[in-house]
Structure formats: C-alpha cells, structure tokens
Amino acid sequence: MLDVKYYKDYRHNYLILKDNGCLAENVYQRKMVTKNKIMGLLESQERHINGEMLLYYEITSRQSLASIYDGKSIGMEQLCRFFLQLKRVNEHLQKYLLDSSCLILQPEYIFQNIESGEFYFLYYPDSEEGKFSELLDFLMSRVNNEDMEAVEMVYKIADLTGKEQLVLDEILRWFQDDIIDVREEGKAKTQYQETAGGDFNLQKESRFFEEKTEDNLAEELPEEKERADKNKLIITLCAIWGTWILGSAVLAYLKNNYEFSGREVIYLLAGWIAVTVLALVFSVITLHREQIENREGEKSRTEPAEAYRYVDVSEYAVPQPPEDSGNTVFIPWSENCENKLYSMDRKNKCHIDLGKLPLTVGKLAGAVDMVIKEQSISRMHAKFSRNGNSIYVTDLNSTNGTFKNGMRIVPNTSEMIEPGDEIRLGKLKFIYR
Fold first, then answer.
1. Which is the most buried residue in 63, 90, 160, 202, by most CB within 10 A?
2. What value does the CA radius of gyration of the chain take, rounded to a whole number of Å?
C-alpha cells in the first residue's frame, strides 16, 4: 500500500511518496527518475526530511484519470490516445534501462494535462502497486457503452489478459495494430486542440493523428493567400511597366525612322508623357489597394480568431445546469430540496446546483460539468461528490485553492460540507444551504 500525501507550496502541487524500503535498495532506478526528465513520467525530486527519504512528484496543472472520468465515460478516441502515449513511455523507459512494471497504473496516480491531452505516469522503483489489471478494471467500468468500438477494444484486452500471461509490451503492440486499422477506416476524431510541439504531439508523431485539423488548415490558408496576392501584385506591376516600355519603344522607333514636323514631335512627346503618367497612376493605385487588403487581412486573422476559438471550445461543452442570473428564489428547507452553493459575490451570481453529483467545476469548457468564467478559477478547480447522505468537496490541484470556512483544503483530498459552511473557489465565495 502506497503511503501518499499531497502538498502545495506557493506555485506548485506535489504528490509525495514515502520510502517503503524500495528507494534505498534501488539506487539506480531512483537516480534515473530523479536526475533525468524522462518523457511521459512525472518529474520527481528526492528529499530527506527528518531522517525520511521522500519522492516529490510534480502534478501542477494536471488531473488524475479518476478525477477526469468520475461520472464520465471513456470512448475509443480516449483509449487510443492513452495507449499510444503509454507505449511511448514504455519505449523511453527501455532507453534508460528502467522496468516498465514499476509504473503505478492506478487511475488516481495517472495524470493528464486536460488542454494538451498529454498523459503523465508515476514511476516508483520496485513497486508492486498499480498493476495492469487495476487499470483494466477502471477502463471496463468507465467505457462508453454506446461506443461499440471502445467496448470491443476493452473486452478484447480483458480476454487476452485473462487467457495468457502477457507483458505490457505485447498488449501495446497489439493495440497499436488496432489503432492503425481505426485510422484507415476514418472513424476517429480529435476532441481537444493539440499543442504545437513536444514528443507527445500525436499530430506529428502518430500515424493515427496524421490528418490535418481545421486549425492547421486555417493557419496555412492565410500564408498561401498572402503568397498568391504578392504574385498577383508583381504580375500587375510588370504588365503596367511592360506596356510603358513597349509604348516608349514604339515612339522612339517612329521618331528615329520618320521625319515629323515640330507640331507632330510635340504630339509624340505629349503621348509619351501621357503613357508615363498613366503607368505611374496605375502603379500607385495598385500598391494602395494592396496595402488596404493587407490591413483588412491582418484584422480578419486577429480579431475573428478569438471568436472562432471561443465557439470551437463551446462545441465540446458538457450540458451545464442553468445559471440563476436573477434574484435568488427562496426554496423551503426539506429533505427533498436541491442542495446548492449560493454565491456571495454581488458581481458574479453563479450558483452551483449540487442536486446531481458528482459535479466538477472550472473554467475549461468540455472538461468540467459546470463552467465558471472567472480568472481566479482553475481549468478543473474542484469536484463535489456524495457519500451516503453527506456531500464532499475535493480540490483538484487548483492554483488559487479551495477553502472551507477559511481553511485551505489540501489538494486531492476531500472535506465534508454542511449547511452554513462557507466555500471559497479562488476569489468566489459561496454559502452552502
């Protein structure tokens, strides 16, 4: 049994593991994971406090699988993403001569960055905790029953694991083959917008995510349009001055090969001046028009982009409980009443309905059940759950913390709340009734 504690300092959240006898014996593994930044593993530090050896794992801005999928289902897309990254982590461990069986595969100790989609795993030397069977039980209980591909995939793995003594490498190789088949059929779609770099950028490294998204095409189209506009401008200017050169050459030929009177020479000179003026006028007009189009193009690429991102994120938003933007309606207290957190902020009257639990709150649409648009709120800030007749609040590694009656709740720990308690999420204060 792992002895796990959570700690938050000024800007970081940590998961702390005490030495259960393995750390002192496995010096090589301990030094490898603490002295190197191994892709896909939680960064760890070795500390000695009061004669005890501790490992501090950085979990800032990351959420555990248990928190993310508490009350939510897992589809084929999420399964593919998870196993692809688990395969890469396994490959990195082999480069450092580390044993993949030391990965803690319990859902509460597997973390994900909910914006980039990257998974991070906890490595504890010579650990017997968190074997693959525990992760498989979690996936089977959370799989989306309406996604037949995901259901079939999970139960294939369960059947394969039950029949043979398979190591993780073999399961990952088998799963990779299935992922390629799914990509060729074109049945998988990306859910979150990927970041631009990193080894876990599946759009660049995985054949499963090779197809370009609309965001990538949107970034390429302005460049192609700008290139085409420049070519068009060059062609137009060449045509104008080519015509001027041709006209000047014709006038020069006529003057040198024919005799003209004084008046005719004046007419020829006036014609040459007129052609020159027209060429200059058309050039100025063309350049001026190009500048106007460039300004409008830059404006359209900046201002509407923000609106597009807002609409794009909202498409994945989970249906949210209606917010009470008006006056508070009095509800008589009874056993069957809907429990609520009532906002104490005059400017932000967002009440949190605790009638349907579990409920996660934060500011990232699509990742939480209820979106609170407040800068002091984290992307996934807190979770409310029920145990029997009691309601608990859990802080989800939030930056500005979750408080009960002025006392800060330790990250990833739960506190029971009772009527009359003051709950603070970031800067927002609520009263539980």
1. 63
2. 32
